[in-house]
Each structure stands twice: as structure tokens, then as C-alpha cells.
Amino acid sequence: MRRTAVRAGGVATAEPPAADPPPPRSPAPPTSTAAELRTEFSFELPRGYVDESGTVHRSGTMRLSTARDELVPLRDMRVQENPAYLSVVLLGRVITRLGTLPSVHDGVVENMFASDLAFLQDFYRQINAEGHTRAAVSCPHCSEPFEVELAGSRLGES
After folding, report:
1. Which residues, 6 or more positions from 91, have their beta carbon under 8 angstroms from its beta carbon?
2. At what angle do helices 86-94 and 114-128 cross, to 10 degrees?
3. Which of 96, 79, 97, 98 is nearest to 87 (CA)?
4. CA 60/CA 78 separation, integer angstroms
5. Residue 14 pLDDT
6. Is residue 110 within 8 Å of residue 86, measured between CB atoms?
7. Is 24 left (phi over 0), alpha (psi -120 to 50) or beta?
8. SS3 string of 26-91?
9. Please, how many CA atoms are within 13 Å of residue 20, restricted to the half-sphere of its CB?
């Protein structure tokens, strides 16, 4: 709405419109004291996957596994015929990126070097077991504290 004012001498002039009041401030978002859940983890393969053109792919990311990721491969005929194939199928589901490959699947994983497969199996265990597979223990003879690696079962097994 525009107001007009009458100045001394009877001349009417238009006042500039009043500025709109600033919009009410929205409350600041609550700050979280708990750490955010991290679902993807970067890795670097020891040797690297060599694709059909000879390109070596070493850096990648793996996401946390879901129950579905561990259950679906059990219906796969290759896993039913050879339970050792479970880790190949499972890793093909949870590796989200490897170098510049357009997609990662069990066919990629089964053509990796054995040392890279072993690395990925251990990495899978670490990120899906709250970030580590070590336990603090004490020597039964001298009581000196040290850590032991618990990763020893096969991937996908409890």
C-alpha cells in the first residue's frame, strides 16, 4: 500500500513504500552430537584389476552390506554348486566403484588377482564389523597387552 503525505504548502507527494519486514527466521537445524553413519569406504587394491584393454584399476569404493546382499547370492546356482563362490558374488554386489570401470559385477571380481580378492574379503569384514576385526588381549605369561586379528572365517559366514 502506498501512502501519500501532504507537505507544508499543500503539495501531496508519494512516500516511498515501506520496506517489507524481514521474513521470520527459521530455527537453526539441530546439531547432531552423534557421528553420521558412513556407508561407503574407499580402498586401494594391492595389485589392481586389469581390464581387457590392459588398463589397471586400483582405487575403488565399497558400501556396507545389507542382509539382502548376503541372502541373494545363496540362491545363485554357482554358489550352490561351489560355496567358495559366495565371496565373489557378494563382493560384486557391494563394490560400487573400481577405477574408471562403468560397472563392477561378479565377472569383474572373479577375474581379479588372488591377492586382491583376499584384500577385498578382509576389507569387507572390517567395514561390516564396526570398522575393525581386532581385539585387545593380554599375554597369559607376562600380561603385556596387544591386539590380535580376528578375521579368519570365510566371507559371508558368521
Report:
1. 62, 106, 109, 117, 120, 121, 124, 155
2. 70
3. 79
4. 25
5. 54
6. no
7. beta
8. CCCCCCCCCCCCCCEEEEEEEEEEECCCCCEEEEEEEECCCHHHHHHHHHCHHHHHCHHHHHHHHH
9. 3
CB burial of 87-115 (b: ≥16 within 10 Å; e: otherwise) equals bbbbbbbbbebbeeeeebebebbeebeee
| Unique residue bearing C-alpha cell 517489507 | 20
**Look-up: residue for cell 567395514?**
127
Q: 127 vs 36, 37, 51, 74, 151, CA distance in Å?
A: 15, 12, 26, 21, 12
Nine-digit cell at 150? 580376528
Dihedral through CA 108, CA 82, CA 78, CA 155, nearest 10?
A: -50
Tell which residue, 126, 149, 120, has the closest CA to residue 44.
120
Give the pLDDT score at 153: 44
CA–CA dist 62, 90 (Å, integer): 11
The pLDDT of residue 157: 45
Per run of 10 residues, the mean pLDDT along the chain (length 158 residues) is 50 55 55 71 97 96 96 94 95 97 96 97 92 68 76 45
